[in-house]
Design brief:
Helices cover 44% and strands 14% of the residues. Helix 5 links the parallel strand 5 and strand 6. It binds nicotinamide-adenine-dinucleotide and 2'deoxy-thymidine-5'-diphospho-alpha-D-glucose (DAU).
Length: 335
């Protein structure tokens, strides 16, 4: 079975490729990745002899046509993924997330191939802090940032291609991931690498915002289950029930695990339009496909965070060169 993984040199796609090579050797994996600032070929070094790597852009219709013709399934991770960047310069988000997804859809339509589209909880907008509800597969779309609006647009395109052209596709919407190989612009690795560099962690605004954290391996196991057993045309919510920890508490957990005082962090400028709370109801995935996350509740999160801290401590060359550049960019935004 041939699997084409877009964005496989990024954080989640890279972990997906590692997971697939280790646990699902029946798949022949090809990665297509443009190696933007967020893509790193070195992420795939341990498995490079077992996969095919193509450097290229998902907006390149000719290339995508050729690659899709030669595969059975496309798993589409490639995206511009960082909200803060989308507030500075939205165009790459429109181009990759919307035009890129359109390009893939046209290729899978032409060659009658299966697509799994990776999406986010952010398409639903946010919940109030005191709202006990969670997002589910029927929650209306209400995205807040240019990033989440382009991801919402890409989901709508996939659904339209399923309904209008009978394309064989599934979608998953997942909450905030953490784990190894995540770019240090993102919240958790930024704070871990701050502490490792003797820089105080940076908390946006009050830090009351809640994200429903999930370990990247739990996400990728869910994606494999959907590939195995998902029903065509369906959407699956992926979330590990960690929606009770706010950003301030995550920083405090990290500081405790890294042996620093609980209040050793700075408050910095808030993100404009900052979503307050995400919470995911993944009952459909659990009951229909039998998914169960491994890293759940506070203990699971401690275990997952400790493993992530260990990975960044042991892989300094992977992030150290970028650290100054990332922090300079944030400092210009007062963050
Ligand atoms: P990432 O930014 O770490 O990686 C994105 C990868 O896509 C990079 O390797 C980059 O080089 C590649 N890419 C970007 N533009 C491309 C283009 N035009 N052509 C080919 N490759 C291109 O992102 P991530 O955090 O791994 O996210 C992967 C997917 O998962 C995205 O679709 C994102 O929306 C979704 N998602 C992310 C999270 C999260 O918490 N990180 C949660 C839910 C869903
Ligand atoms: O919810 C899923 C989404 O999670 C994915 O679709 C996105 O691709 C992914 O980047 C992530 O988006 P967020 O904006 O939630 O993640 P980020 O890591 O940027 O920030 C997490 C929270 O932490 C958010 O409330 C902002 C806050 N934050 C972030 C940074 C970088 C800080 O307080 N300080 C920081 O330094």
């Amino acid at each position: 079975m041939k699997l084409l993984v877009t964005g496989g040199a990024g954080f989640i796609g890279g972990n997906f490729v590692h997971y697939t090579v280790k646990h699902r050797p029946e798949y022949e994996v090809t990665v297509i990745d443009a190696l933007t600032y967020a893509g790193n070929k070195a992420n795939l070094a341990p498995v490079m002899d077992k996969i095919k790597f193509v450097e290229g852009n998902i907006c390149d219709a000719e290339l995508m046509d050729k690659l899709v013709a030669d595969t059975d399934i496309v798993v589409h991770f490639a995206a511009e993924s960082h909200n803060d960047n989308s507030l500075q310069n939205p165009w790459p988000f429109v181009e990759t997330n919307i035009v890129g997804t359109y390009t893939i859809l046209e290729a899978v339509r032409k060659h009658d191939k299966r697509l799994h589209h990776i999406s986010t909880d952010e398409v639903f907008g946010d919940l109030e802090l005191d709202d006990p509800n969670r997002f589910n597969e029927s929650t209306p779309y209400n995205p807040s940032s240019p990033y989440s609006a382009t991801k919402a647009g890409s989901d709508h395109l996939v659904r339209a291609w399923v309904r209008s052209f009978g394309v064989q596709a599934t979608i998953s919407n997942c909450s905030n991931n953490y784990g190894p190989y995540q770019h240090i612009e993102k919240f958790i690795p930024r704070q871990i690498t701050n502490v490792l560099s003797e820089i105080k962690p940076k908390l946006y605004g009050t830090g009351e915002q809640v994200r429903d954290w999930i370990h990247v391996d739990d996400h990728n196991e869910a994606v494999h289950l959907i590939l195995d057993k998902g029903k065509m045309g369906e959407t699956y919510i992926i979330g590990a029930d960690n929606d009770h920890v706010n950003n301030k508490q995550v920083i405090e957990m990290l500081l405790e695990l890294m042996g620093k005082p609980k209040d050793w962090y700075d408050h910095v400028n808030d993100r404009p339009g900052h979503d307050m709370r995400y919470a995911m109801d993944s009952s459909k995935l659990r009951t229909e496909l039998g998914w169960k996350p491994r890293y759940t509740d506070n203990n699971g999160m401690h275990e997952g965070l400790q493993a992530t801290i260990d990975w960044y401590s042991q892989n300094r060359p992977w992030w150290q060169q970028q650290k100054a550049e990332v922090e300079t960019k944030y400092a210009k935004q007062g963050q």
